Amino acid sequence: MNANFASFLYLVSGVLFIMALRGLSHPTTSRQGNLYGMIGMGIAIATTLALATPSAGRFGLIVLGLAIGGGVGAVTARRIAMTSMPQLVAAFHSLVGLAAVMVAAAAIYAPESFGIGTVADIHAQAL
């Protein structure tokens, strides 16, 4: 896949995520907002998989992560009462924050994988 086309697809998915947040701000548009979010995430995942270097182990780990995360999310969402929805959303937001920390740690551990230089290029002041 061409890097410019991948960047365009990531931009489209980002716009869809913004539209999803806007749609989720009102009960009458929440279904449409959810749809935008799902389409945006589908585009982002498909683009990432298309850019990944083909390897059975790499795709296996991605599928395993999606299955575990999706499974835990689905089971948790089905078990929570509607009156506890704010707590569920807060818990899921905490998991998103944890995922961001893990991505940042991975970027510091192996910056070459993210295309941001080498370990020697990371200055202590940046941390």
How much of the sequence lies in strands comes to under 5%
Helix content: over 70%
The dominant shape is globular
Low-confidence stretches: none
**SS-based structural class?**
mainly alpha
Number of helices: 4
Radius of gyration from CA coordinates: 17 Å
Mean pLDDT figure: 86
Q: In words, what does this structure look like?
A:
It is a single chain. The chain is an all-alpha fold and 127 residues long. It has a domain of 51 residues. Helix 1 runs antiparallel to helix 2. The longest helix has 25 residues. The chain is globular, with a radius of gyration of 17 Å. The model has no long low-confidence stretch (mean pLDDT 86).
